[in-house]
Amino acid sequence: PPPSPRPPWPPSQPVPRPPPPPAPFVYASERLTVISGRCVQDGPCVTSPGYPSNYPDRDRCTMRPVEAAPIQVISFDTEHCCDFLTVNGIQYSGHGTSAYGSLLHDDVVPVAFYIFWRSDGSVSQRGWKICQESRAPHSPPAPPSHPLPPTAPPQPPSPPPSPPSPPLGEWYVSCNRAAVASLTVQPEAMAELGFAI
């Protein structure tokens, strides 16, 4: 009788499922909020580290703004060429008439999800203090599932483990890598062919 059909070897691997989509972004609920770095939360305001003294070199922080509320600038003094507060993708720096690109002013309304602060490794100034509060009363939203945007693409999943070795007494023959057939060899036949059992 012909041998019964066997499943292909190695067994087919499960197809990995894509990760679920990220939760929708949530603005800060009631006030400008520090979410990373050394900037200082002061009620509805945020200051550069050390304010009103000079901020440190090589400093970074990220803040989450309130939706549709303007920023109030209490003070702003940064190294004009190299230390930036970024709002809506625009880098603000300087003091008074020494603004490098744009000097941050009252009534800028953040439409981007984050405000970023960055100082370089040399000259520092007094820094800044900005405030922002919600104008409409509302209940706080649920926290986002991921507070910061990803900085690197996700890594591919690890390869699946190697399949187990075929059972003793079975041989697997590959023909041009296109078809796999299995044969069952009796121990007596293996001995006749000169294989040790």
Instruction: Supply Rg.
Output: 32 Å
Largest sheet: 5 strands, antiparallel
Shape: elongated
Number of helices in the DSSP assignment? 1
Whole-Å distance between the termini?
Answer: 26 Å
Total number of β-strand segments? 11
What structural class results from the helix and strand content? mainly beta
Question: In which range does the helix fraction lie?
Answer: under 10%
Could you tell me the mean pLDDT?
Answer: 74
Low-confidence stretches: 168-183
Task: Give the neighbour order of strands across the main sheet.
Answer: 1-4-8-6-7
Q: Order of helices and strands, N to C?
A: EEEEEEEEEEEH
Bin the strand percentage: 25-35%
Quick tags:
single chain, 197 residues, mainly beta, 5-stranded antiparallel beta sheet, 4-stranded antiparallel beta sheet, 3% helix, elongated
Structure at a glance:
3% of the residues lie in helices and 25% in strands. It contains 1 helix and 11 strands.
